[in-house]
Amino acid sequence: MFRKVLIDLTNKGAVSVKFAALLALLRTPLRQVRYPTSMLGSLSPEAQDWVEAGFILAAFWIPAALFRIFWKQILGPWINKSSNPKIALLIRPVRAMVSWGLILGGLNLAYQSLEFALKRPTLSEWVTRGITIAWVVLAIYFTTRLVAGAFQYQAQKANADGEYRNRTTTSQKLATGAIIVFGALFILRIGGIDISPLLAGGAVGGVIIGLALQDSLSNVFAGLFLNMDRPIKVGDLLKLDQDREGFVEEVGWRYTKVRLWNDSLLMIPNNKFGQSTFINFNRPDTALNTHVECGIAYDSDLDHVERVAIAAAKAAQDAANDRETEFEPYVRWRSFGDSAIVFRVFMRVDEATAQYRANHYCIKEMHRRFKAEGIDIPFPIRTLIHTNSSNSDSEKPQ
């Protein structure tokens, strides 16, 4: 006779009425099948249970196999060809969930159909625990893959807008780690292990470890905030203290790595980097203004100098940029220096690294044009006027 109770592991002995009713509905058609006497008439009840379990397995495993074939032949190629990355990244984890869910569901129902096995409480408990643990592992796998797909989709979307490179972020690692830890604790509880001492010991150990690794944890949390706030991204050109400049290579758990112009790698602890002041040449836009400072002689025609300087800056701006820009260079006079009148000529470049090419071209072009136009760029000089006072009419004291 079909058993209507199952052992619920988490409650240790509670009756799973709904699941038993579902199994009864599945078994009823099998009980009504009139097997030929020559085939099953001489079989023992245990053998008949095995045959019934085989039918249940087939009822679940055949759809699982058909689903995998359908995915491989039809759904998979359609997802790969889809222009929407959300479909590919978020639906792929469903394949493993559906196929393995059917397999585990068939195993569970098939085992519950073996009445002689259910009469052995110890065996039944361990088998049910094993199947339940398998369900938890499948859920952990599905959740981690889903979280990874969501982060990758956001990364690809942001990368298309120039936000940051498609990579695994620290937030994704933390989320995946949290899912695995909670899943492992749940598996230990299903296995009959009391996790209360583990949690209490973990709290005490966490305090000790937190005090011992205070600097390391501060770097980790600073890296987490950097990934959440995103003041920088991989590939950004930064100007740091001591006039050091470089490109962001990675924002890791403990360090932010910046590759300097001499191709050396600067490792900055995240807590110090978060407290430092820096210039990001890629924010808020990759295009930016740059300037070249110069001085001309006091007897120069300033209007003529301004026209020549703007023409030189325009030629340098066009040479430095990959495409034409509508920005018109302009001159701003700065000050009266010791030996020259100082001015700055401003240009605009499409990207941060182009500012150095623009300045390079502008200096060469201004020097050439100033020389051709007879505009003097004076050396640093200083004129001293010494006046001798005559005291011939003064009387010397007696």
Termini gap? 146 Å
**Poorly predicted ranges:** 1-20, 29-38, 160-167
Strand content: 5-15%
Oligomer: single chain
Question: Care to describe what's here?
Answer:
The chain has 398 residues and is an alpha+beta fold. The protein has 3 domains: 7-32 and 45-193, no CATH class; 194-284, SH3 type barrels; 288-373, Alpha-Beta Plaits (2-Layer Sandwich), CATH 3.30.70.100. The protein has helices at residues 17-32, 37-41, 45-81, 85-112, 115-118, 121-160, 170-190, 196-212, 214-229, 270-275, 302-320, 354-373; strands at residues 7-8, 14-15, 237-239, 245-251, 255-260, 265-269, 279-280, 288-296, 330-336, 341-349. The strands form 3 sheets. The chain has a 5-stranded antiparallel beta sheet. It has a 3-stranded antiparallel beta sheet with strand order 8-10-9, covered by helices on one side. Residues 1-20, 29-38 and 160-167 have low confidence and may be disordered.
Descriptors:
12 helices; alpha+beta; 13% strand; Alpha-Beta Plaits; 398 residues; five-stranded antiparallel β-sheet; elongated
Topology of this structure?
Elements: E1 7-8, E2 14-15, H1 17-32, H2 37-41, H3 45-81, H4 85-112, H5 115-118, H6 121-160, H7 170-190, H8 196-212, H9 214-229, E3 237-239, E4 245-251, E5 255-260, E6 265-269, H10 270-275, E7 279-280, E8 288-296, H11 302-320, E9 330-336, E10 341-349, H12 354-373
Antiparallel strand pairs: 1-2, 3-4, 3-7, 4-5, 5-6, 8-10, 9-10
Helix pairs in contact: 3-4, 4-6, 6-7, 11-12
What is this structure, in a nutshell?
The chain has 398 residues and is an alpha+beta fold. It has three domains: 7-32 and 45-193, no CATH class; 194-284, SH3 type barrels, CATH 2.30.30.60; 288-373, Alpha-Beta Plaits. The protein contains twelve helices and ten strands.
